[in-house]
Amino acid sequence: MSETDGEAISDLPPSAKLVFKVLEYKGPLTQKGIVEESMLSARTVRYALERLEEVGVVDEDVYFADARQNLYELNTEDVEQAEQAISD
Questions:
Q1: Which of 21, 65, 69, 79 meets the CB 3.0–4.6 Å disulfide criterion with 30?
Q2: What is the domain-level CATH number for residue 32?
Q3: InterPro entries annotated for this entry (predicted)?
Q4: Is the pTM of this model over 0.85?
């Protein structure tokens, strides 16, 4: 993660930061799981995930229990740097 990525994370909307925290504490989740944990609307979670993917801190993978859904998890290499950027 470059310095500009850290700046980009700190500029993200609060909903994206909340989704980041939910994934940090709960681990990999589907979009439905994130909606339930964060109490945000599905549309807001979708937007937050798009923004987090743009910055490169969230990875999307196939959810093998239900291939119609995706599993979202933090990119572990960048979590510590992203966490620092969010707390600044």
A1: 69
A2: 1.10.10.10
A3: WH-like_DNA-bd_sf, WH_DNA-bd_sf
A4: no
